[in-house]
């Protein structure tokens, strides 16, 4: 890994995961905040079930490491990362529901609707989504209210109709859920459904660091390449991976009839595409010199992951 050894990278990733876990634990405590009336136990338990004790926390890691390029406070970056992780966890809860992907297993244990019920799962997802915007607007993230506004707007757009949510409905359409024979643009679907939140993890650091236009563009380009590489690696794992390592059933895409990068490019073509994307990601952040070493290592981690 360029400039960062595998062991050093793993330690940094684990440290951010631990810090994010602790922060989410505090944010999801039973303590009632100003302007809140109550925090119902069933709702809080469900939100904690789906957001604590699991995951690599890659998205918060990208926020922390992209912000570190500009010397931004780790505490501020972790708060933004926690907001992003709330969005990610809510999306997984809803994606697993019977009306969506109808999954029984997530991170090696029952999905939330299996552990509780559909209504609780829906509301827990709603709770995490709205909590994310509570977190990302907090004063301690940045003294400049305009920075907080830009972070909030970017998060809404990456998570919403032109990002993740829009990508999800295009993905369902690609399964034939709504009839018709619209052409399937896999790259566009995954740029929205999966890539948008990963990209946010990168541009959030640029926004926090009040980056120049060139610096912002570099992290934007890097985030887009990393997001696509992540999805292709995910498609490959669905074909070649082991369910025990994945923590969810393998082969789910084929069962659902999804068109993926692997079905379009073939296994070897998909692997070559990942290599091309890694080169693009490396090149994008080369303007930062040695400060980009961890980000370059992160792109390799995404491409080479086993779960």
From TrEMBL:
Biological processes, Gene Ontology terms: terpenoid biosynthetic process
The keyword Plastid is assigned to this record: no
Gene3D superfamilies: Farnesyl Diphosphate Synthase
InterPro entries linked to this entry: Isoprenoid_synthase_dom_sf, Polyprenyl_synt, Polyprenyl_synt_CS, Prenyl_diphosphate_synthase
Cofactor(s) needed for function: Mg(2+)
Gene Ontology molecular function: any one: metal ion binding
Record GO cellular component, one term: cytoplasm
Keywords, alphabetical: Isoprene biosynthesis, Magnesium, Metal-binding, Transferase
Presence of the UniProt keyword Glycosyltransferase in the record: no
Protein name: Probable farnesyl diphosphate synthase
């Amino acid at each position: 890994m360029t400039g960062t050894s595998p062991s050093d990278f793993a330690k940094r990733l684990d440290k951010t995961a631990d810090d994010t876990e602790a922060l989410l634990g505090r944010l999801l405590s039973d303590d009632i905040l100003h302007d809140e009336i109550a925090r119902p136990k069933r709702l809080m338990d469900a939100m904690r079930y789906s957001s604590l004790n699991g995951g690599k926390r890659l998205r918060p890691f990208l926020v922390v490491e992209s912000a570190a390029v500009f010397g931004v406070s780790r505490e501020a970056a972790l708060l933004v990362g926690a907001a992003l992780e709330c969005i990610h966890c809510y999306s997984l809860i809803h994606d697993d529901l019977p009306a969506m992907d109808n999954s029984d297993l997530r991170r090696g244990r029952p999905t939330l609707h299996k552990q509780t019920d559909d209504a609780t799962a829906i509301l827990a997802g709603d709770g995490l989504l709205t909590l994310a915007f509570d977190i990302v607007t907090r004063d301690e993230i940045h003294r400049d209210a305009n920075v907080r506004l830009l972070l909030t707007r970017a998060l809404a757009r990456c998570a919403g109709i032109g990002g993740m949510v829009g990508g999800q409905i295009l993905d369902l359409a690609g399964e034939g859920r709504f009839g018709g024979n619209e052409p399937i643009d896999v790259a566009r679907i995954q740029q929205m459904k999966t890539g948008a939140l990963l990209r946010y993890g990168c541009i959030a650091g640029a926004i926090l660091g009040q980056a120049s236009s060139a610096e912002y563009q570099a992290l934007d380009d890097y985030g887009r390449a990393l997001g696509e590489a992540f999805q292709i690696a995910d498609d490959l794992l669905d074909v070649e991976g082991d369910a025990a390592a994945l923590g969810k059933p393998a082969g789910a895409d084929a069962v659902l009839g999804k068109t993926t990068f692997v079905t379009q490019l073939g296994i070897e073509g998909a692997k070559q595409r990942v290599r091309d994307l890694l080169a693009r990601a490396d090149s994008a952040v080369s303007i930062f010199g040695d400060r980009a070493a961890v980000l370059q290592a992160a792109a390799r981690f995404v491409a080479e992951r086993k779960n």
